[in-house]
Design brief:
about 425 residues; BirA Bifunctional Protein, domain 2; 16 strands; binds histidyl-adenosine monophosphate
Length: about 425
């Protein structure tokens, strides 16, 4: 028997109610904050991701699905959404549009990770990006949108964590201090962190091993090494967030798993602890567009994993509105009635009423059982006698009451 590949899953009809609900909230949020939809290809030139996400990140180092196509092009299934949107922004000359340009996406993402609860090899992300404005008020708006999105979904008990990791000017200074600090603790570091020390010292702050976390707790903080511009930006952002009433906490050791961030980084997590618990994260990436060949353009964005949202909706017992159900089930007994059922179902559907046909040859009892499972409001029952009389039996599924209705009055009655 074939099975879905490890780390992937089918989204079965029973789960679709969550996806429908979340997609509606995505559309509402983006409409409210003025973001327009963008869809980019599932795969891109591999170099787009190694240049943006960063050679030294786990994603590029070990998690990308990379392949050569028949033309010899090296391609990668997108391991995140930001790089593709940046590529599209530059490629389509969106810098000529009034700035900021605000775009969103909801797309499958591929990472070769070790599967576990909330961590998949294919997952979906809702993400959004705003280009062309470096003002801290835009950071506040982007963070506010993420927070309000989760609140509108009905998720409570969330934490909003915030940090600033500086810019091209001040970060090297901080990294040098951080490297010095960790060099003194090399002997106590896990093998991964030892390797990271030379290549990507920021990532040391993010190690989940208790022994490394203990060392991280006393490490120098990026906020103490910000240049005056970054410091002013961060302090204004905190004021904006305070005015918006967002309950953020500054987490001096919040760094993100992608290399393109500058200044603001933030994450939203459920209050309950858990390794794979982060619902979403984002931040500024003011140098990325230029690094990808565009003109210098500040930008900021956020993305959240849909599967993790669903996990949290279930954990928190959020009641999801049911999907719209078909209105009518068409049951019939005998050959003549089967023909009439096809005609009648078509007439009702053309008039905008949703009708599910049961399969022929089944007993009336079996057909009514199916109607119950489908949770329709009404079942139309026809047999030879009804066809001859030009009527149907209309059964109200909630009360089980039945009435005889002339066919020419059926539409009016159902509407
Ligand atoms: P990220 O933190 O790597 O950021 O991913 C965003 C979210 O996707 C995570 O917070 C998590 O909810 C979900 N996620 C990530 N990996 C997995 C996985 N293996 N299985 C299930 N869910 C997962 C980014 O990707 C950035 N592009 C976000 C961003 C947008 N920054 C600026 N703009």
């Amino acid at each position: 028997m074939y099975q879905a590949p490890r780390g992937t899953s089918d989204i079965l009809p029973d789960e679709q109610v969550y996806w429908y609900y979340i997609k509606q909230q995505v559309a509402d949020s983006c409409q409210r904050y003025g973001y327009q939809r963008i869809d980019t290809p599932l795969f891109e030139d591999s170099r787009l991701f190694s240049r943006s996400v960063g050679e030294e990140t786990d994603i590029v180092d070990k998690e990308m699905y990379t392949f050569k196509d028949k033309g010899g092009n090296q391609l990668t299934l997108r391991p995140e959404g930001t790089a593709s949107v940046c590529r599209a922004y530059v490629e389509h000359g969106m810098y000529n549009l009034p700035q900021p340009v605000k775009l969103y996406y909801l797309a499958p993402i591929f990472r070769y990770e070790r599967p576990q609860a909330g961590r998949f090899r294919q997952h979906y992300q809702f993400g959004y990006e705003a280009f062309g404005d470096d003002d801290s008020s835009l950071d506040a708006e982007v963070i506010d949108m993420a927070w309000q999105f989760f609140r509108a979904l009905g998720l409570n008990s969330l934490l909003l964590k915030l940090n600033s990791i500086g810019c091209k000017e001040c970060r090297p200074n901080y990294l040098a201090v951080l490297r010095d600090y960790y060099t003194k603790h090399t002997g106590e570091l896990c093998p991964d962190c030892k390797a990271r020390l030379a290549r990507n010292p920021l990532r040391l702050l993010d190690c989940k091993r208790p022994s490394c976390q203990q060392i991280a707790r006393l490490a120098p903080k990026s906020v103490n090494y910000l240049c005056p511009q970054c410091e002013a930006h961060f302090s204004q952002l905190k004021k904006h967030l305070g005015r918006l009433g967002l309950p953020f906490t500054v987490d001096n050791y919040l760094v993100r798993g992608l290399d393109y961030y500058t200044r603001t980084v933030f994450e939203i997590q459920p209050e309950v602890e858990g390794g794979q618990s982060t619902l979403g994260g984002g931040g500024r990436y003011d140098s990325l567009i230029e690094e990808l060949g565009g003109s210098p353009t500040p930008a900021i964005g956020f993305a959240a994993g849909i599967e993790r949202i669903i996990l949290n909706l279930k954990r928190q017992g959020v009641v999801i509105p049911p999907l719209p159900k078909p209105k009518v089930c068409m049951a019939h007994i005998g050959d003549i009635a089967a023909e009439e059922a096809i005609r009648l179902a078509a007439t009702l559907r053309r008039a905008g009423i949703s009708v599910v046909a049961t399969s022929s040859g089944k007993s009336l009892k079996a057909q009514l059982r199916q109607a119950n499972t489908l949770q329709v409001s009404y079942t139309i029952i026809i047999g030879k006698q009804e066809v001859e009389a030009g009527t149907v039996v209309l059964r109200d599924m909630a009360t089980s009451e039945q009435q005889i209705v002339p066919v020419d009055q059926l539409l009016e009655q159902l509407s």
